[in-house]
Design a protein that fits this description.
With 142 residues, the protein is mostly helical. The chain contains four helices and no strands.
Length: 142
């Protein structure tokens, strides 16, 4: 078993990572619910032309499942100092990056938030690796 001594700066990094994950999760909840609720956030319907979607409801539900839920789970794992926190954070950050990449490929539309959200996903992955660098990424059985 690995014993890790936490310093004040390492605690701040853990809180910073969890805070970033909560921010991304809340953003995804806002967007997902806004899309599911009859496109209350006002995305242009012409952006759906050429996609497999007839309305914004399914993309909104998928945003909640693919981005919001993993980010919220990763933040919870991080706040609980779970041995699975690093895995959860890397997976959630990768899901965020994948979501934006898929959005760009499927929609073929550009929005200024896309590079911002992609960078936040990459930042989650990077911070998870830095915060947990002295711990195994994948927990080993006891």
């Amino acid at each position: 078993m690995v014993t890790v001594t936490r310093t004040p700066s390492s605690r701040r990094r853990h809180w910073g990572l969890a805070g970033l994950e909560v921010l991304v999760a809340l953003s995804a909840v806002y967007g997902g619910v806004g899309l599911v609720a009859a496109n209350a956030i006002g995305m242009p319907d012409d952006w759906l032309v050429g996609t497999p979607f007839g309305s914004w409801a399914l993309p909104g539900a998928m945003l909640l499942i693919v981005v919001a839920a993993p980010m919220a789970a990763a933040a919870t794992l991080e706040l609980r100092r779970s041995v699975w926190a690093a895995v959860g954070s890397v997976a959630a950050g990768a899901a965020q990056v994948g979501w934006i990449a898929a959005e760009l490929l499927i929609m073929q539309r550009y929005n200024v938030l896309q590079p911002v959200m992609m960078l936040l996903g990459l930042l989650v992955v990077l911070l998870a690796l830095v915060v947990r660098r002295h711990e195994p990424l994948w927990p080993t059985p006891r």
